[in-house]
User: What shape does this take?
Amino acid sequence: QVQLVESGGRLVQAGDSLRLSCAASGVTFSSATMGWFRQAPGKEREFVAASQRNGEMIHYVDFVKGRFTISTDNAKNMVYLQMNSLRPEDTAVYSCAAGPAWGTTATVRTTRQYNYWGQGTQVTVSS
Assistant: This one.
């Protein structure tokens, strides 16, 4: 059974860094796509980053490139999202997701790529 539990979200100031963690049980990273999505109040859930087959392919949405980094730790069964230079517009609930290993650059950016979701962790960036 797959379980995803996020942690690490909190209130920070603009320009700060934060690392989100996702404890993933029942998932083999080499056989999965692990993604991070976020949802701000009143907005739809949006793709942030994905790691296919344990980092074989990495994808980012344009507005986080150079600021956010997704990584996986096989030994600890953890997925991380390192977020630097945070902006108020990064405020959202961030969720970890797991899905099949194979997907196109387009499909890994959509929710339909993923079968399992965590409950989310709140990140608030003050100006």
